[in-house]
Task: inverse folding
């Protein structure tokens, strides 16, 4: 190891936090050093307590067991009883320790004293902080109405408390995680089959993935079952302009970017023309087959070969292999689908392909209704219904999107371009880092500068928090009690996230922060229901309401960490036989969507040849095994040690043309920004494409580990969104790689 | 469309929303958002209690909901009241107002208006609408 941290050098001090910082480093040091000496298994370890909990380093929320000595967290292991994580923890999960002991962490409320983003802060008490936030919110509400507040947050077990506060102001202007990530997948699958199905990768005989990079991103269960599937003889085909580690586990098809839909349409052409499709399934379970048949009649493999640069024979072979494996085929839905402006329509073609293969409601294919524990619901106060329309005209511009999530690109652009229906003055941000996640970073910065008031609730002084007027420090997931977690999966279970160590500094759990703001706001403004009344409960009471009807109590769950439901054997056939209906207008899988047609979108996905820019490369981005989200990963010392900076991947031929060699720093330039970054010269990427791993190039001076390391993809990406869902389209930018 | 309520304080604010309600009712314009609150807090709560499952607006088509609400027959099983409008009536709201926040909040609304709001919500969230809604 041997980092600067080992030597105890503490140049990293979050201004005004000297005492807290020193303590943090001391604690961090102890645990950091102790780490090497901690025995590998719990069984041979003596000395402390083991507390079961739930990870939060990514969205998979694995079950974890935390070894604690004298109040210091020394080691995190996977919980073998957890059906999703099955005893595994990845590098990120283990490095969760450093999210607690990060010396850069915000440990006290901080109020800005210098100019926005200048990094001058003063420490405030919680009372002062709540007053400060309430003063600003009440002033904006009085002058402009509650709807002039933008309320952004990212999906997590605790997000509902933050959102609830916004609902009761009331503001309609939420900006949630979906349009930074998977909104287009959701819209596409919902329109086609009424929801995103589960994939039985363990029993599939043929797995087709577009871009999805399971082995490097997250979601352990899908990886493990995928590897099981491969062991069981499944063929894995990965279609991606870049050869990821996932692609290395199977066959890599280096497709020309943004032509994926040409491939799926041509595969459907072959299946129909060669009569390889499942006629019975199509007759019973689908809507609009004749129109589809006519639609793809001319979309031959030869045509698709021109578009995709995949040989026509290969496309024919793929279709035949899939048909031979059917119904045990999975065309993987994908997760982060923020690629192109046609993403919802492209995603629609994936379940359409599956429907032709009859790959639904059978082992090794798609299905609905995996086992899931049914949690009781907490009874909230009645919410205001008399709420303004959104400021960004989202409902009318994106009639088929999820209006309660909002769309980041369109709302940011509306604010900066001055086309909002009314002024947007205040911005509350919880657990989100839009200034490092939304494409065209410079434009996002302009949005921030336009606000009268910004409050960030965060663990880290992220790029967004750094631009705020006040930062309210939240506890990490290892220091707080959260609502319960009951995912669908191979087996129903309930997991709990509970405090493993005491909070660092004065950090508070989000529910306490919301209560503090609510109480201070009530004193300054009259709400339909007093906000303190809305949040008049404890986390324990909230959890007890969730546990109603389940055969376990809170204390036992906290001891055990998990409640496992009965083992259920999945039954198949209800949909195939037509007994069960899909949640679509026709009750069937819809090749043709009348809902799309009615809203002036093509009822069947229509392909358009992409426009390219001569002499430039298309920029694509993605994730890394040690680095999924900017939030919490960029500044994590252990993860940083594993992968300190990202590179721009360029093909050897392009490198030769430009005289660029491996490891050399280059300039990457687009119409909206430029970054300096090291080159990785590799044949694992197409010549017309460059790749930059997301999450690097941080520019918050508060994050001393991450700042300035590598290059930020989002600073290069031009403003673009999927036409139907407004999912940000991050692969629509062409860049120039310049030798410096 | 945009309601500027910022200058109206306290009680006045609540009264105003009731006035707005009445205007909307007088103009015959149903409010699906109000209907959503009532449906989720009265109809759904009982469905989950009685049957273990909610009845989502997106489980039926627009035409099916319109026909269901026009017929005003609640459920054939005999386990509950015979008419849907029994559950939007003032008498029903009165009977559960002690334990149900929505019934209490909408106590004074005319029966027909509340019925229209609930109908507007289920139609707005029907499975062939543009905005299919689940129960929660």
Result:
């Amino acid at each position: 190891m041997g980092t600067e941290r080992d030597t105890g050098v503490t140049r990293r001090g979050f201004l005004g936090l000297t005492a807290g910082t020193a303590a943090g480093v001391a604690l961090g040091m102890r645990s950091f050093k102790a780490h090497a000496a901690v025995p590998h298994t719990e069984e041979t370890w003596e000395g402390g307590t083991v507390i079961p909990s739930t990870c939060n380093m990514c969205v998979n929320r694995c079950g974890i067991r935390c070894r604690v000595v004298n109040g210091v967290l020394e080691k995190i292991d996977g919980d073998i009883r957890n059906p999703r994580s099955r005893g595994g923890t990845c590098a990120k999960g283990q490095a969760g320790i450093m999210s607690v002991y990060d010396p850069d962490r915000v440990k006290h409320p901080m109020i800005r004293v210098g100019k926005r983003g200048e990094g001058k802060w003063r420490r405030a008490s919680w009372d002062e902080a709540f007053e400060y936030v309430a003063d600003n919110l009440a002033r904006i509400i009085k002058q402009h109405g509650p709807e002039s507040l933008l309320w952004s947050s990212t999906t997590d077990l605790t997000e509902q408390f933050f959102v609830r506060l916004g609902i009761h102001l009331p503001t309609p202007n939420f900006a949630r995680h979906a349009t930074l990530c998977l909104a287009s997948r959701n819209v596409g699958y919902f329109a086609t089959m009424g929801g995103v199905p589960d994939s039985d990768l363990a029993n599939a005989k043929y797995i087709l993935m577009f871009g999805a990079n399971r082995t490097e991103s997250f979601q352990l269960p899908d990886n493990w079952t995928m590897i099981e599937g491969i062991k069981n003889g499944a063929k894995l085909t990965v279609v991606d302009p870049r050869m990821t580690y996932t692609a290395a586990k199977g066959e890599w098809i280096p497709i020309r970017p943004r032509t994926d839909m040409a491939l799926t349409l041509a595969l459907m052409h072959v299946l129909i023309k060669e009569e390889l499709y499942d006629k019975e399934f199509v007759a019973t379970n689908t809507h609009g087959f004749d129109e589809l048949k006519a639609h793809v009649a001319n979309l031959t493999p030869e045509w698709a070969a021109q578009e995709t640069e995949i040989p026509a024979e290969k496309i024919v072979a793929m279709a035949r292999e899939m048909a031979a494996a059917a119904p045990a085929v999975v065309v993987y839905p994908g997760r982060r689908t923020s690629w192109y402006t046609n993403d919802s329509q492209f995603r629609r073609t994936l379940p359409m392909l599956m429907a032709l293969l009859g790959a639904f409601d059978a082992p090794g294919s798609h299905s609905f209704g995996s086992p899931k524990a049914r949690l009781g619901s907490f009874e909230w106060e009645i919410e205001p219904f008399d709420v303004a329309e959104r400021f960004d005209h989202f409902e009318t511009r994106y009639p088929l999107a999820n209006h309660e999530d909002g769309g980041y690109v369109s709302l940011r652009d509306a604010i900066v371009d001055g086309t909002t229906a009314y002024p947007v003055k205040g911005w509350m941000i919880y657990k989100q880092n839009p200034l490092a996640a939304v494409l065209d970073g410079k434009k996002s910065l302009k949005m921030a500068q336009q606000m009268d008031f910004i409050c960030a609730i965060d663990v880290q002084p992220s790029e967004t928090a750094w631009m705020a007027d006040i930062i309210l420090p939240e506890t990490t997931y290892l220091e707080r009690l959260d609502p319960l977690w009951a995912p669908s999966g191979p087996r129903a279970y309930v997991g709990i996230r509970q405090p493993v160590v005491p909070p660092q500094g004065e950090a508070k759990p989000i529910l306490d922060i919301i209560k503090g703001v609510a109480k201070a706001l009530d004193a300054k403004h009259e709400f339909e229901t007093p906000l303190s009344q809305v949040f008049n409960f404890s986390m324990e009471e909230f959890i007890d309401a969730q546990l109603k009807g389940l055969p376990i109590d809170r204390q036992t769950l906290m001891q055990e960490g998990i409640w496992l439901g009965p083992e259920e054997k999945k039954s198949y056939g209800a949909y195939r036989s037509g007994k069960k209906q899909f949640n679509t207008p026709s009750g069937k899988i819809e090749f043709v969507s009348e809902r799309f047609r009615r809203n002036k979108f093509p009822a069947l996905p229509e392909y358009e040849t992409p426009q390219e820019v001569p002499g430039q490369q298309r920029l694509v981005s993605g994730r890394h095994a040690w680095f999924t989200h900017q939030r919490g990963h960029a500044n994590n010392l252990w993860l940083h040690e594993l992968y300190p900076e990202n590179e721009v991947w360029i093909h050897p031929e392009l490198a030769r043309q430009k005289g660029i060699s491996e490891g050399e720093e280059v300039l990457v330039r687009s119409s909206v920004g430029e970054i300096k970054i090291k080159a990785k010269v590799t044949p694992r990427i197409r010549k017309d494409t460059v790749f930059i791993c997301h999450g690097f190039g941080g520019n918050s001076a508060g994050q001393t580990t991450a700042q300035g390391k590598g290059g930020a993809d989002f600073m290069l990406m031009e403003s673009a969104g999927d036409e139907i869902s407004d999912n940000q389209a991050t692969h629509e930018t062409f860049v120039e790689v310049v030798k410096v | 469309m945009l309601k500027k309520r910022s200058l109206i304080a306290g009680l006045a604010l609540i009264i105003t929303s009731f006035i707005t309600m009445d205007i909307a009712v007088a103009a015959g314009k149903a409010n699906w958002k109000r209907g959503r609150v009532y449906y989720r807090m009265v109809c759904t709560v009982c469905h989950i209690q009685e049957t273990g499952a909610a009845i989502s607006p997106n489980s039926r088509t627009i035409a099916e909901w319109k026909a269901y609400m026009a017929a005003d027959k609640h459920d054939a099983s005999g386990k509950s009241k015979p008419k849907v409008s029994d559950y939007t009536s003032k008498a029903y709201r009165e009977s559960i107002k002690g334990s149900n926040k929505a019934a209490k909040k909408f106590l004074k609304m005319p029966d027909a208006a509340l019925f229209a709001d609930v109908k507007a919500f289920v139609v707005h969230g029907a499975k062939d609408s543009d905005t299919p809604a689940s129960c929660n």
User: Anything to note?
Assistant: Chain B has two domains: 1-30, 31-136.
